């Protein structure tokens, strides 16, 4: 089970990485910081202070990911491992900004995204 969670985390990071490079899927979580905050605001009803803090967090993350891609030197495995850690750090920072009710909703959103990704992975494996 732990191995499956690690694989899912890596794949989630890869998807986020790919979406960030493409500008995100229809304005999704891989989109620019403002679009990401707007998407969260629609579900979580963020305060202006939370929006400002999250915009800063997402901007810093985007810059760190860009730097990581530039410094990776083609080592995809090392980059994926660092991206996974960055993703975990991001989740911690986001949770610190949210109130308890928002955290519950956000956790559900993340779990839903992971479930969708697992479903897509299984579909791809079955199609080979």
Describe, in plain words, how this protein is organized in 3D.
Helix content is 83%, strand content 0%. Helix 1 crosses helix 4. The two termini are 24 Å apart. It is built from 5 helices and no strands.
Summarize the structure.
With 128 residues, the protein is mostly helical. The protein contains five helices and no strands.
How many helical stretches?
Answer: 5
Proportion of residues in β-strands? under 5%
Radius of gyration in whole Å, from Cα? 15 Å
The biggest beta sheet, please? Answer: none
Give the helix proportion (percent range): over 70%
Number of strands: 0
Q: Tell me, briefly, the overall form.
A: globular
State the end-to-end CA separation.
24 Å
Residue stretches low in confidence (pLDDT < 50, at least 5 long) are: 17-29
Topology pattern, helix = H, strand = E: HHHHH
Average residue pLDDT = 81
Structural class: mainly alpha
Q: Keywords, please?
A:
mainly alpha; 128 residues; single chain
Present the secondary structure layout.
Elements (H helix, E strand, L loop, with lengths): L1 H20 L11 H12 L3 H24 L4 H22 L2 H28 L1
Helix pairs in contact: 1-4, 2-3, 3-4
């Amino acid at each position: 089970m732990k191995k499956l969670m690690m694989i899912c985390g890596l794949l989630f990071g890869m998807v986020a990485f790919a979406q960030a490079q493409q500008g995100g899927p229809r304005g999704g979580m891989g989109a620019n910081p403002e679009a990401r905050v707007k998407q969260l605001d629609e579900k979580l009803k963020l305060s202006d202070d939370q929006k400002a803090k999250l915009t800063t967090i997402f901007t810093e993350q985007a810059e760190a990911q860009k730097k990581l891609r530039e410094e990776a030197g083609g080592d995809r495995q090392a980059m994926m491992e660092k991206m996974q850690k960055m993703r975990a750090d991001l989740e911690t920072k986001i949770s610190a900004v949210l109130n308890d009710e928002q955290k519950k909703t956000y956790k559900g959103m993340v779990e839903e995204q992971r479930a969708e990704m697992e479903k897509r992975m299984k579909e791809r494996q079955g199609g080979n």
